[in-house]
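Page 47, continued from p. 46.
Same chain as before, 167 aa.
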Amino acid sequence: MNQIDITKLSANVVDLWMNRWLLLTAGTMDDCNMMTVAWGSIGCIWAMPFAQAVVRPQRHTLGYMEKSDSFTLCAFPEKYRKDLGTLGSISGRDGDKLAKTRLTLKPSSVVSAPCYNEADLIFECRKIYFQDMDPAGFVDKSIDDNYQAKDYHRIYFGEIVAAFGDE
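Result:
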Protein backbone atom coordinates (compact mmCIF):
# COMPACT_ATOMS: atom_id res chain seq x y z
CA MET A 1 0.00 0.00 0.00
CA ASN A 2 1.37 3.38 -1.02
CA GLN A 3 1.12 6.69 0.78
CA ILE A 4 -1.18 9.10 -1.05
CA ASP A 5 -0.63 12.82 -1.32
CA ILE A 6 -4.12 13.72 -0.16
CA THR A 7 -4.03 17.00 -2.09
CA LYS A 8 -3.80 14.94 -5.28
CA LEU A 9 -6.37 12.28 -4.37
CA SER A 10 -8.63 11.36 -7.26
CA ALA A 11 -11.50 9.10 -6.20
CA ASN A 12 -15.16 8.57 -6.87
CA VAL A 13 -16.13 9.65 -3.36
CA VAL A 14 -19.88 9.36 -3.87
CA ASP A 15 -19.44 5.72 -4.90
CA LEU A 16 -17.05 5.21 -2.00
CA TRP A 17 -19.65 6.29 0.56
CA MET A 18 -22.86 5.04 -1.06
CA ASN A 19 -21.77 1.72 -2.52
CA ARG A 20 -18.47 0.59 -1.03
CA TRP A 21 -19.01 1.88 2.52
CA LEU A 22 -16.22 2.75 4.93
CA LEU A 23 -15.22 1.41 8.32
CA LEU A 24 -14.95 4.12 10.98
CA THR A 25 -12.66 3.20 13.89
CA ALA A 26 -11.86 5.19 17.03
CA GLY A 27 -9.81 4.37 20.11
CA THR A 28 -6.43 2.65 20.32
CA MET A 29 -4.95 -0.71 19.32
CA ASP A 30 -5.75 -1.95 22.85
CA ASP A 31 -9.27 -0.55 23.10
CA CYS A 32 -11.21 0.48 20.01
CA ASN A 33 -14.57 0.16 18.37
CA MET A 34 -15.60 0.29 14.76
CA MET A 35 -18.74 0.70 12.72
CA THR A 36 -19.61 0.64 9.05
CA VAL A 37 -20.54 4.08 7.71
CA ALA A 38 -22.20 5.04 4.45
CA TRP A 39 -22.86 8.73 5.09
CA GLY A 40 -20.09 11.31 5.07
CA SER A 41 -17.84 13.41 2.91
CA ILE A 42 -14.27 14.08 1.92
CA GLY A 43 -13.04 17.47 0.87
CA CYS A 44 -11.36 20.66 2.05
CA ILE A 45 -12.33 22.95 4.93
CA TRP A 46 -10.32 25.57 6.83
CA ALA A 47 -7.48 25.01 4.30
CA MET A 48 -7.21 21.36 5.39
CA PRO A 49 -8.10 18.10 3.67
CA PHE A 50 -10.84 16.54 5.77
CA ALA A 51 -13.20 13.63 6.14
CA GLN A 52 -16.57 13.98 7.78
CA ALA A 53 -18.46 11.08 9.34
CA VAL A 54 -21.70 10.93 11.30
CA VAL A 55 -22.57 8.74 14.28
CA ARG A 56 -26.00 8.27 15.88
CA PRO A 57 -26.16 8.78 19.67
CA GLN A 58 -27.05 5.16 20.47
CA ARG A 59 -24.03 3.70 18.67
CA HIS A 60 -21.31 2.24 20.90
CA THR A 61 -18.71 3.88 18.65
CA LEU A 62 -19.92 7.32 19.77
CA GLY A 63 -18.22 6.92 23.16
CA TYR A 64 -14.96 6.05 21.44
CA MET A 65 -15.28 9.03 19.12
CA GLU A 66 -15.91 11.29 22.11
CA LYS A 67 -12.85 10.20 24.08
CA SER A 68 -10.50 9.88 21.09
CA ASP A 69 -8.45 12.57 19.38
CA SER A 70 -8.44 10.68 16.10
CA PHE A 71 -10.28 8.20 13.92
CA THR A 72 -9.66 6.22 10.75
CA LEU A 73 -11.85 5.60 7.74
CA CYS A 74 -10.97 2.49 5.74
CA ALA A 75 -12.32 1.06 2.50
CA PHE A 76 -11.98 -2.59 1.52
CA PRO A 77 -12.13 -4.79 -1.55
CA GLU A 78 -15.58 -6.21 -2.36
CA LYS A 79 -14.65 -9.63 -0.89
CA TYR A 80 -14.93 -8.06 2.60
CA ARG A 81 -18.47 -6.74 2.07
CA LYS A 82 -20.02 -9.35 4.40
CA ASP A 83 -17.50 -8.40 7.11
CA LEU A 84 -18.50 -4.74 6.80
CA GLY A 85 -22.14 -5.79 7.09
CA THR A 86 -21.34 -7.68 10.29
CA LEU A 87 -19.49 -4.71 11.79
CA GLY A 88 -22.38 -2.41 10.92
CA SER A 89 -25.08 -4.62 12.45
CA ILE A 90 -23.52 -5.99 15.67
CA SER A 91 -22.78 -3.75 18.65
CA GLY A 92 -19.37 -3.74 20.28
CA ARG A 93 -21.23 -3.56 23.61
CA ASP A 94 -22.11 -7.23 23.13
CA GLY A 95 -18.56 -8.52 22.70
CA ASP A 96 -15.68 -8.65 20.24
CA LYS A 97 -17.47 -8.13 16.95
CA LEU A 98 -14.19 -7.87 15.03
CA ALA A 99 -13.52 -11.53 15.90
CA LYS A 100 -16.60 -12.42 13.84
CA THR A 101 -14.88 -11.07 10.69
CA ARG A 102 -11.75 -11.73 8.64
CA LEU A 103 -10.41 -8.22 9.35
CA THR A 104 -7.31 -7.60 11.46
CA LEU A 105 -6.12 -4.40 13.13
CA LYS A 106 -2.80 -2.73 12.56
CA PRO A 107 -1.36 0.49 14.00
CA SER A 108 -1.86 3.64 11.98
CA SER A 109 1.20 5.61 10.88
CA VAL A 110 0.29 8.95 12.53
CA VAL A 111 -2.87 8.70 14.67
CA SER A 112 -3.70 6.55 17.68
CA ALA A 113 -6.82 5.02 16.10
CA PRO A 114 -5.95 1.74 14.36
CA CYS A 115 -6.60 0.73 10.76
CA TYR A 116 -6.77 -2.64 8.98
CA ASN A 117 -4.37 -4.94 7.17
CA GLU A 118 -7.04 -5.79 4.58
CA ALA A 119 -7.98 -2.19 3.69
CA ASP A 120 -7.22 -0.89 0.21
CA LEU A 121 -7.76 2.76 1.20
CA ILE A 122 -7.00 4.32 4.59
CA PHE A 123 -7.61 7.84 5.85
CA GLU A 124 -6.00 8.69 9.18
CA CYS A 125 -7.85 11.64 10.70
CA ARG A 126 -7.16 14.03 13.56
CA LYS A 127 -10.49 15.08 15.06
CA ILE A 128 -10.93 18.85 14.58
CA TYR A 129 -14.66 19.57 15.01
CA PHE A 130 -17.96 18.05 16.04
CA GLN A 131 -21.53 19.24 16.17
CA ASP A 132 -24.90 17.66 16.79
CA MET A 133 -27.17 17.73 13.78
CA ASP A 134 -29.97 20.26 14.22
CA PRO A 135 -33.20 19.35 12.39
CA ALA A 136 -34.13 23.04 12.30
CA GLY A 137 -31.54 23.31 9.53
CA PHE A 138 -33.25 20.78 7.24
CA VAL A 139 -34.31 22.92 4.28
CA ASP A 140 -35.63 19.74 2.64
CA LYS A 141 -38.02 18.59 5.38
CA SER A 142 -38.11 15.04 3.98
CA ILE A 143 -34.59 14.54 5.43
CA ASP A 144 -36.25 14.24 8.84
CA ASP A 145 -37.85 10.98 7.59
CA ASN A 146 -34.42 9.40 8.24
CA TYR A 147 -34.92 10.10 11.96
CA GLN A 148 -38.14 8.43 13.10
CA ALA A 149 -36.63 8.11 16.61
CA LYS A 150 -35.31 11.72 16.50
CA ASP A 151 -31.83 10.24 17.04
CA TYR A 152 -29.94 12.90 15.10
CA HIS A 153 -26.32 12.20 14.24
CA ARG A 154 -23.28 13.82 15.80
CA ILE A 155 -21.12 15.10 12.94
CA TYR A 156 -17.33 14.70 13.21
CA PHE A 157 -14.74 16.42 11.04
CA GLY A 158 -11.22 15.06 10.93
CA GLU A 159 -8.20 16.56 9.24
CA ILE A 160 -6.77 13.85 6.99
CA VAL A 161 -3.17 13.71 8.25
CA ALA A 162 -2.18 10.57 6.31
CA ALA A 163 -3.71 8.52 3.52
CA PHE A 164 -2.73 5.19 2.00
CA GLY A 165 -4.12 3.22 -0.90
CA ASP A 166 -3.62 0.82 -3.72
CA GLU A 167 -3.64 2.07 -7.29
